[in-house]
C-alpha cells in the first residue's frame, strides 16, 4: 500500500471533506435566498459534527496518524475562522467583533504553542483538555445559531436583538470565556519551558 493510500483512511477522508465544505459554506452564506442562512448553519453544524466523528472513528478503527493529527485541527480552525469573519460582516457590531477576535487570536496562539512544545518533546503538556472540549461545543452551538438567522436592524441601522439573539450571544460569550481560560491553562502548563528558572538552566 502506498503512503498516499495509507493516509486516505475513513477518518482522514471525513476531515478532508470538512475542508472542502468551507468554500461551499461561504458560497451558500452569500446566496440571496431566504433559505441561505439556515443552509449555511446546517453546513457549519455538519462540519462540527464531522469534527467529533473523525476523531471517534480514528480511535475506534485504530487509524490514528500524524497526518490526521495535523489535518483535523487545521480543518476545524479554518471553518470556525471563516464563519466568524462572515458573521462579523453580517452583524457589524463590536459585540461580535471582540469575541471573534479573541477566539481567532487564541487559536493562533495555542497552535503556535503546541507546535513549539512538540519540537521540544513536551506536546503532552498542552494536550486538549476537557475545558477545550466544552468550549468547542458552546462555540459550535453559538455560531450555528448566529448563522441560522440574519440579524435584524432598525431604521437607523442599529442591531435589533431578539430573545434568540440574546441566547446565541450568551453562548458565544461563554465560549469566549472558556477560550481565554483554556489558553491561559495551556500557557501555565508550558510556562516552565517558556520561561525556565535560572536554577533549571
Mean pLDDT: 82
Instruction: Please give the alpha-carbon distance between the first and last residues.
Output: 46 Å
Instruction: Please tally the β strands and state the result.
Output: 2
Strand content: under 5%
Q: Any idea of the CATH topology?
A: Four Helix Bundle (Hemerythrin (Met), subunit A)
- Write down the Rg: 19 Å
Biggest sheet, strands in spatial order? 1-2
What's the domain count? 1
Unreliable stretches: none
Query: What's the name of the CATH homologous superfamily?
Result: CDP-alcohol phosphotransferase transmembrane (TM) domain
Question: What features would you describe in this structure?
Answer:
This protein has 201 residues and is mainly α. It has one domain: CDP-alcohol phosphotransferase transmembrane (TM) domain (Four Helix Bundle (Hemerythrin (Met), subunit A)). It has helices at residues 3-7, 10-29, 36-60, 66-91, 94-119, 130-148, 163-194, and strands spanning 152-153, 159-160. Helix 4 packs antiparallel against helix 5 (94-119). The longest helix has 32 residues, at 163-194. The mean pLDDT is 82.
Highlighted features:
201 residues, mainly alpha, Four Helix Bundle (Hemerythrin (Met), subunit A), two-stranded antiparallel ribbon, 7 helices, 2 strands, 76% helix, 2% strand
Strand-helix topology:
Elements: H1 3-7, H2 10-29, H3 36-60, H4 66-91, H5 94-119, H6 130-148, E1 152-153, E2 159-160, H7 163-194
Amino acid at each position: 500500500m502506498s503512503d498516499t493510500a495509507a493516509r486516505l483512511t475513513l477518518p482522514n477522508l471525513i476531515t478532508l471533506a470538512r475542508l472542502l465544505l468551507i468554500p461551499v459554506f461561504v458560497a451558500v452564506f452569500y446566496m440571496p435566498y431566504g433559505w441561505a442562512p439556515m443552509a449555511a448553519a446546517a453546513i457549519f453544524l455538519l462540519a462540527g459534527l464531522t469534527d467529533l466523528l473523525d476523531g471517534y472513528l480514528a480511535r475506534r478503527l485504530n487509524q490514528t496518524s500524524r497526518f490526521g493529527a495535523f489535518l483535523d485541527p487545521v480543518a476545524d480552525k479554518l471553518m470556525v475562522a471563516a464563519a466568524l469573519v462572515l458573521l462579523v460582516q453580517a452583524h457589524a457590531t463590536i459585540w461580535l467583533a471582540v469575541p471573534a477576535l479573541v477566539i481567532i487570536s487564541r487559536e493562533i496562539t495555542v497552535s503556535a504553542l503546541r507546535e513549539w512544545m512538540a519540537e521540544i518533546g513536551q506536546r503532552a503538556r498542552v494536550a486538549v483538555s476537557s475545558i477545550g472540549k466544552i468550549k468547542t461545543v458552546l462555540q459550535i452551538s453559538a455560531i450555528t445559531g448566529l448563522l441560522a438567522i440574519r440579524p435584524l436592524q432598525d431604521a437607523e441601522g442599529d442591531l435589533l436583538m431578539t430573545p434568540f439573539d440574546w441566547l446565541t450571544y450568551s453562548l458565544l460569550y461563554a465560549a469566549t470565556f472558556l477560550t481565554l481560560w483554556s489558553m491561559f491553562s495551556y500557557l501555565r502548563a508550558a510556562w516552565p519551558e517558556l520561561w525556565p528558572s535560572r536554577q533549571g538552566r
